[in-house]
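Fold it.
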Amino acid sequence: MVQMACISLVVTACYTVTGGEKHFEGEQISGISFVAANEKITVEDLIPIKDIGATWVSLMPYGFVREAGNTIHFNTEWQYWGEKDKGLVETAELARMEGMKVMIKPHVWFRHGEYTGDYIPPDSVKGEFKKSFSDFVLHYAEVARRVDADLYCIGTEWHKFIDYDPGFWQDLIKKTKKIYTGPITYAANWDEYKTVPFWQEMDFIGVNAYFPLSDKDFPSQADLQEGWQSWIKDMQAISISIGKPILFTEYGYRSTVGNTSKPWESSTRPEVSLSNQTVAYNALYNEFWYKPWFSGGFAWKWFHNHAERGGDTNIDYTPQNKPVEEVIRDVYSNPE
């Protein structure tokens, strides 16, 4: 027996259910996470993204908690050009000019070093922080509405805050939808996505895909594809259960030795390995890109001034001017 159903995605998408597997029919998102520039950009800064075959960009304005966990400062004069509303709007407009779609994905950075996923508002500032966070999310929902964004991400890696106050989040989602009426998602960390309580309110199950795959310094592609298997099984199961496709709101690897042991760590193993980055991307694409319950993702991360970024000695996540660019181009330019 085959069942038919429709869900609301970036474009109306339908799925069939055959033998317990949902087959989503919708656009495959070939995206790049574009870092907010510290200076005014031009269309020339976006052409390399288009040339790699990307059809989407994720724009990521940051808010900053400068004190010990209460007020989020955003759209302030001291922030980067691309983080302020004017720069964010202009970047979105330039992306549109180049024929790309846009996700607005605000982030919060704690200046005192706390990870957002571990944060629970202290009782002494609980009300103040929740109001500030709500103002932050709703402000960028308004920006997303203003630029007619194709997707809005309501938050990035807030595991304990969601567990602590799921009612606050449900209310925030309702308020967000009154402002921005397009598709929405949430960017769950790889170790929290299974417990997020509001996936039914989202259009995608958003996952920041920094899953540990291998402890080897130089894993083979076969090693990594084997390392993906248990994670794939879990993601497929939740996609079928919830009735929403998986979207990698972030994915990527540093160009270092041992880069798939703890892919979320950005300050370890300084030894360059361009091949490790290439192998890791190939394994991810081979295991995910054509799965029927998977809707693509946003590679982490890309900077303006492309010619000056990345390169053979760079150990950061950026794929710029590294061999992995060709791997991305091959997949993004051949979506079928």
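DSSP finds eight helices and 14 strands in the chain.
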